[in-house]
From TrEMBL:
Signal peptide residue numbers: 1-21
Family in the record: Belongs to the LemA family.
Region of interest called Disordered, as start-end residue ranges on this chain: 185-205
Gene Ontology annotations for the cellular component aspect, listed alphabetically: membrane
Keywords assigned by UniProt, alphabetized: Membrane, Signal, Transmembrane, Transmembrane helix
Organism: Zymomonas mobilis subsp. pomaceae (strain ATCC 29192 / DSM 22645 / JCM 10191 / CCUG 17912 / NBRC 13757 / NCIMB 11200 / NRRL B-4491 / Barker I)
Topology within the bilayer: Single-pass membrane protein
Name under which the protein is recorded: LemA family protein
Location of this chain's protein in the cell: Membrane
Length: 205
């Protein structure tokens, strides 16, 4: 009996915490899976963008082969951005990924501005199609990042708020996830992909 008395206080706290957490703890796995799924969407859209770049570079090179620095910068930035392994519960990893994507966005912005100097490139149908695909992808990236951050906020609220925080750690080993924060070079915005080339319409006539 004395043993039970000694054990009771030690058992009371975790049992009480788990009981209190019962109403919300079951939501944690679903919230975690949702956040991971939204992160997969972000990665898929960034990969879609990366897949467009080789054809885009090749098309630009056909008209502006001497723009070597711009073409090389895009190629190298793409290689860096696509070679990273990212963990959503590692802030440093997420920061490095965001920085790499930010550098790629800047390099792409410079590449797209090259067309202003080459009327024939502006009228190239393959280039115009790639521009349209890139613009659509950049928009989807913005939406995917927003949806991921919203999912992370919901998940983190669950695992950080008492009493769920105790149950989350005991039963799931849950860790907070890192929201996607665009770097200063990325500035939460997609690179500008303009379709307002003033001369393109006249050139097509």
């Amino acid at each position: 009996m004395s043993l039970l008395r000694r054990l009771s206080p030690a058992l009371l706290v975790p049992v009480a915490a788990v009981s209190l957490a019962g109403c919300g703890i079951n939501q944690i796995p679903a919230a975690e899976e949702n956040a991971k799924a939204r992160w997969a969407d972000v990665q898929n859209e960034y990969q879609r963008r990366a897949d467009l770049i080789p054809n885009l570079v090749a098309t630009v090179k056909g008209y502006a082969s001497h723009e070597k620095d711009v073409l090389t910068a895009v190629t190298e930035a793409r290689a860096k951005a696509t070679s990273m392994n990212v963990s959503v519960d590692n802030p440093d990893s997420m920061k490095q990924f965001a920085e790499a994507q930010g550098r790629l966005s800047m390099a792409l912005g410079r590449l797209m501005s090259v067309r202003e100097q080459y009327p024939q490139l502006q009228a190239d149908q393959n280039f115009l199609a790639l521009q349209a695909q890139l613009e659509g992808t950049e928009n989807r990236i913005t939406i995917a990042r927003r949806d991921y951050n919203e999912a992370v906020q919901s998940y983190n609220t669950l695992v950080r708020t008492f009493p769920n925080a105790i149950g989350a750690k005991i039963f799931y080993g849950a860790k907070p996830m890192t929201p996607y924060e665009a770097t200063a070079t990325n500035a939460q915005a997609a690179p500008t992909v303009s379709f307002d080339a003033p001369d393109s319409a006249s050139q097509k006539k």
